[in-house]
């Protein structure tokens, strides 16, 4: 609904202005708005301030941000053409409240995302704009470009997933020639063995395990990386996804929904240390202890999405990653900070992890996420 989109836009605006309006706070803001409605702006202000502010500095800044946003929004709304009574949405009623599923759109402009899905991803974007948005750092994207970037991401990640699926079907291993089958198939061609049949060896499809860092330092990137993790499921039949910060939490069942926004609605309830510190080594230790035996094998691609800032002991991180490296086909680490020209992986945690990483690549923009495609299939 229009009300849902307004709350989502406000959370984006607040995050861009320095408030800690991450994933969990955005979901809570939608739930608060659904409870109190949006007709009474003063009541809405108090409700949103209570859930979006986590410090005195944010509390002091909030009121100005709230009134600036809603003043501009009201001004934009007044410029639109008046609608007939038949066209007026239910949102104009005084008692309007967000629908029960409203929080499912916290990842972005829900109408924009659904629009891109419905038209098969045929969003019309100028070539120059497309290239600019593909290369834009997620943490630096301007407010006015967010909706367009989300449409573009939805379309391109969907295309990437489709290509991966097709490549997997084409790249079937060939064993020895199956003479009996070749002769049988040649009968319809006058007995000439034009096409050879092979005794194919069954290849077990790669399994993907994803660990996504949702600590405070990853706030600017985690929303887009969640979308990326969701898109990967369209290619890999077996995807296991986890969030971690100070603790580990599996979200695989939530991301199996056919609807992205419904899939992400329930993530705000996950207890994984949202926007907190980071204990990568301890999180990997928990993974190895509870999930390693079931999920790690020579067919596993192990993907970590993290900036590498670790408050735990680097020896723990190294030992746990070493144990994982010995059991999987490939360890891939995507670090958003690699997109910065001056970045060097010299922090204790990142330095300890590097010897056990097969692919170390950036994840700061859409272009870098799409570049991972070549690492996700066997050559």
Structure explained in plain terms:
With 379 residues, the chain is α/β, with parallel strands linked by helices. It is 47% helix and 8% strand. It contains 16 helices and 6 strands. It has a 6-stranded mixed β-sheet.
Topology:
Blueprint: H1 2-16, H2 23-36, H3 41-52, H4 56-78, H5 110-118, H6 127-135, H7 146-170, H8 179-186, E1 207-213, H9 219-232, E2 239-244, E3 248-250, H10 252-255, H11 260-265, H12 280-290, H13 292-295, E4 300-305, H14 314-325, E5 330-335, H15 348-353, E6 359-362, H16 366-370
Parallel strand pairs: 1-2, 1-4, 4-5, 5-6
Antiparallel strand pairs: 2-3
In short:
With 379 residues, the chain is α/β, with parallel strands linked by helices.
Radius of gyration, CA atoms, in whole angstroms: 24 Å
Q: N-to-C SSE series?
A: HHHHHHHHEHEEHHHHEHEHEH
Instruction: Tell me what portion of residues adopts beta-strand conformation.
Output: 5-15%
The shape is globular
State the share of residues found in helices, binned by percent. 40-55%
- The tally of helices reads 16
Low-confidence stretches: 78-125
Distance between the termini: 45 Å
Number of strands: 6
Residue-averaged pLDDT: 76
Strand order of the largest sheet: 3-2-1-4-5-6
- Give the structural class: alpha/beta
**Biggest beta sheet summary:** 6 strands, mixed
Any key phrases for this structure?
379 residues, 6-stranded mixed β-sheet, 6 strands, alpha/beta
């Amino acid at each position: 609904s229009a009300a849902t989109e307004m709350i989502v836009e406000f959370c984006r605006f607040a995050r861009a202005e320095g408030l800690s309006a991450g994933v969990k706070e955005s979901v809570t803001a939608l739930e608060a708005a659904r409870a109190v409605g949006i007709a009474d702006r003063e009541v809405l202000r108090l409700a949103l301030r209570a859930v979006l502010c986590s410090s005195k500095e944010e509390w002091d800044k909030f009121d100005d941000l709230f009134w600036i946003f809603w003043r501009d929004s009201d001004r934009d709304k007044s410029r639109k053409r008046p609608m007939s009574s038949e066209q007026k949405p239910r949102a104009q009623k005084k008692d309007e409240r967000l629908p029960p599923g409203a929080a499912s759109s916290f990842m972005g402009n829900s109408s924009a995302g659904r629009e891109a899905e419905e038209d098969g991803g045929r969003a019309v974007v100028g070539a120059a704009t497309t290239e600019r948005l593909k290369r834009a750092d997620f943490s630096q994207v301007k407010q006015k470009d967010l909706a367009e970037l989300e449409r573009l991401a939805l379309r391109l990640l969907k295309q990437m997933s489709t290509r991966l699926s097709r490549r997997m079907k084409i790249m079937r291993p060939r064993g020895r020639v199956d003479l009996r089958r070749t002769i049988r198939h040649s009968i319809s061609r006058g007995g000439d063995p034009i096409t050879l049949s092979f005794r194919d060896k069954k290849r077990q499809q790669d399994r993907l395990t994803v660990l996504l860092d949702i600590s405070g330092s990853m706030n600017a990137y985690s929303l887009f990386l969640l979308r990326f993790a969701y898109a990967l499921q369209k290619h890999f039949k077996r995807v296991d996804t986890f969030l971690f910060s100070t603790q580990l939490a599996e979200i695989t069942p939530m991301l199996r929904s056919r609807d992205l926004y419904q899939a992400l609605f329930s993530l705000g309830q996950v207890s994984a240390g949202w926007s907190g510190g980071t204990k990568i080594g301890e999180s990997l230790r928990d993974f190895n202890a509870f999930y390693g035996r079931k999920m790690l094998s020579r067919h596993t691609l192990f993907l970590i999405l993290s900036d590498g800032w670790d408050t735990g002991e680097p020896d723990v991180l190294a030992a746990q990653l070493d144990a994982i490296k010995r059991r999987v086909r490939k360890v891939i680490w995507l670090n958003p900070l690699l997109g910065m020209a001056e970045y060097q992986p010299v922090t204790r945690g990142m330095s300890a992890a590097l010897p056990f990483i097969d692919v170390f690549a950036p994840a700061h923009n859409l272009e870098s996420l799409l570049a991972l495609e070549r690492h996700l299939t066997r050559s």
